[in-house]
C-alpha cells in the first residue's frame, strides 16, 4: 500500500514537472525578458465543444486585459481570431485556450526591432534639428516669398516628425504585447482536407452535400412569398377558366333537313 502511494505521488510530480517545463518553454520562446522585440503566436485548436468556443476565447482575452482585433467566421467550419494582450498575461491565456481541445498547430515568431528603434529615433533627431533651423530662418526672413517658402518647408517637416513619433510610440506599445492568431476548427471538418483516400473524399462529399442541401432548403424558405403567389395565381386561373367554360352557350346540332341548300 505504501509503495502504491509513493508511486502515485511520484506520478503526480512527474505530470506537474512536465506541465511546468512546457509553460517555461513557452515563456522562453516568447522571450518575456527580452526587450525591443515584436512577438506573434499562432495556435490551431479543434475544440471539444464547437459552439461557444470563440465566445469563451473573447471573454478570456478581456479578462486578461487584452483586445480582440478581428473575428472571421467561415460558415460552420472555422473561426479565426486575432488577439492582442500584454506579454505578462499571454502564457495564462494560451493555457486556457489550449484547454479547449486538441492543439494541431503552434508557432512562435519574434522580430527584433532594436535597429528600427535606433533608426527612427535618429530620424526624429534630424527632423528636430531641421525644424530649429527653419524657425531661425523664419526670424531672419525679410521678404514675403521667403516667409511663405520657409513656412511651407517647416509645416512639411513638422508633419514628418509627428509621423515618426507616432510610429515610434506604436512600436513601443506593441513591444509590450503579444499578437495571437487563433484558428478554431470544427471537429466535424478537422480531418477533411483536400485529397486523401477514396473513403475520406466520399465522407467529405456526403457532409458537404448535406450542407448544400440544407442551404438549398433555407434558400427556398426565403422565397416563401413567391411560392404562395404562384399557387394563388394558378388557383385563380383555374377558377376563371372553369367559369368561362360553364357560361359559354352550346350550339344545338343541326338536322340534315335544316341545312342550307348549296
Residue-averaged pLDDT: 77
Give the quaternary arrangement of the chains. single chain
- The order of strands across the largest sheet is 2-3-5-1-4
As a percent range, the share of strand residues is 15-25%
Helix content: 55-70%
Following the backbone from N to C, one meets helices and strands in this order, namely HEHEEHEHHEHH
Radius of gyration: 37 Å
Give me the secondary-structure category: alpha+beta
Number of distinct helices? 7
CATH topology of the domain at 29-113 and 175-185: Alpha-Beta Plaits
List unreliable stretches of 5+ residues. Answer: 1-24
Distance between the termini: 129 Å
Biggest sheet character: 5 strands, mixed
In the CATH scheme, the class of the domain at 29-113 and 175-185 would be Alpha Beta
Total beta strand runs: 5
**What CATH architecture of the domain at 29-113 and 175-185 would you give?**
2-Layer Sandwich
Which geometry do the CA atoms define?
flat
Describe this structure in words.
The protein has a five-stranded mixed beta sheet, with helices on both faces. α4 runs antiparallel to α5. It has seven helices and five strands. The termini are far apart. Among the domains are: 96 residues, Alpha-Beta Plaits (2-Layer Sandwich), CATH 3.30.70; 59 residues. By secondary structure, it is α+β, with helices and mostly antiparallel strands.
List the keywords.
single chain; 262 residues; alpha+beta; Alpha-Beta Plaits; five-stranded mixed sheet; 7 helices
Quick overview of this protein structure:
With 262 residues, the protein is of the alpha+beta class. 61% of the residues lie in helices and 19% in strands.
Amino acid at each position: 500500500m505504501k509503495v502504491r502511494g509513493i508511486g502515485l505521488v511520484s506520478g503526480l510530480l512527474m505530470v506537474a514537472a512536465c506541465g511546468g517545463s512546457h509553460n517555461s518553454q513557452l515563456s522562453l520562446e516568447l522571450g518575456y525578458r527580452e526587450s525591443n522585440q515584436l512577438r506573434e503566436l499562432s495556435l490551431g485548436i479543434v475544440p471539444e465543444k464547437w459552439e461557444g468556443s470563440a465566445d469563451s476565447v473573447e471573454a478570456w482575452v478581456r479578462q486578461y486585459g487584452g483586445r480582440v482585433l478581428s473575428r472571421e467566421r467561415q460558415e460552420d467550419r472555422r473561426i479565426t481570431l486575432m488577439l492582442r494582450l500584454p506579454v505578462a498575461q499571454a502564457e495564462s491565456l494560451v493555457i486556457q485556450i489550449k484547454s479547449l481541445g486538441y492543439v494541431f498547430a503552434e508557432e512562435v515568431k519574434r522580430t527584433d526591432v532594436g535597429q528600427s528603434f535606433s533608426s527612427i529615433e535618429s530620424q526624429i533627431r534630424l527632423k528636430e534639428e531641421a525644424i530649429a533651423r527653419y524657425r531661425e530662418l523664419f526670424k531672419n526672413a525679410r521678404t514675403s516669398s521667403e516667409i511663405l517658402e520657409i513656412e511651407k518647408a517647416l509645416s512639411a517637416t513638422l508633419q514628418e516628425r509627428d509621423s515618426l513619433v507616432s510610429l515610434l510610440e506604436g512600436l513601443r506599445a506593441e513591444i509590450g504585447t503579444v499578437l495571437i492568431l487563433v484558428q478554431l476548427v470544427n471537429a466535424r471538418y478537422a480531418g477533411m482536407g483536400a485529397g486523401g483516400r477514396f473513403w475520406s473524399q466520399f465522407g467529405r462529399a456526403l457532409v458537404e452535400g448535406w450542407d448544400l442541401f440544407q442551404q438549398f432548403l433555407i434558400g427556398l424558405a426565403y422565397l416563401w412569398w413567391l411560392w404562395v403567389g404562384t399557387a394563388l395565381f394558378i388557383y385563380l386561373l383555374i377558377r376563371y377558366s372553369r367559369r368561362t367554360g360553364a357560361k359559354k352557350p352550346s350550339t344545338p346540332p343541326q338536322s340534315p333537313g335544316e341545312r342550307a341548300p348549296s
